[in-house]
Each structure stands twice: as C-alpha cells, then as structure tokens.
Amino acid sequence: MHKSLHETVVQFLTETIPLFEAFLVALSLHVVALPVLWMIGWALPWPKPPVITTIIEWDLQTWPPKAKKVFDFRDPKLNK
User: Fold this and answer.
1) How many domains does one find in the chain?
2) What's the pLDDT tens digit per position in 1-53?
3) Is residue 80 part of a domain?
4) Which range of residues forms the domain containing residue 22?
5) Alpha carbon separation from 56 to 29, 37, 39, 50, 63 (Å, rounded)
6) What is the SS3 assignment for 76?
7) CA quadruple 44, 48, 51, 53: dihedral positive or negative?
8) Helix, strand or coil, per DSSP, at residue 43
9) Is 18 within 8 Å of 24 (Cβ atoms)?
10) Is residue 68, in this structure, part of any structural domain at all?
11) Is residue 79 in some structural domain?
C-alpha cells in the first residue's frame, strides 16, 4: 500500500542518479570548452584572449636580452 519514507527516498535517489551523471558530464564539457572557445576568440570578448601572454610579456620587459650565467649570481667576482 504505502511505502515507507526510507524506501521512497532510496527510490528517488536511485532514479535521479542518471540525471545527476548527465549533469556532471554536461558541466565538465562546458568547463573544458569555455577556455578553448575563449582562446579561439568565440567567447568572452573581454579581456582579449592572450591575457596570460600579455602579462608575461609585460613582466619580462625589464629583463636583459641575454640570460645571465648562474655563477654571476652565486659568485660575481669569480671571473674578474
């Protein structure tokens, strides 16, 4: 006749598992697709897609054109 509350809750949870799994698949596809679409330039027009590259280039503006040797930092008087 009437099911107990425990049986009803268990049945509800077992019936919603496929729906929850489909939701997780859709969410993961969106999480993967958004950065790809952003880098292509089809989504989120602000800021411009190569933001990370721009930040790195700005940070490296003051770097010398040629890399220093390790011993220049460790012992600058070594070759003088």
Assistant:
1) 1
2) 578 999 999 999 999 999 999 999 999 988 888 888 777 777 766 555 555 56
3) no
4) 5-74
5) 28, 21, 16, 10, 11
6) coil
7) positive
8) coil
9) no
10) yes
11) no
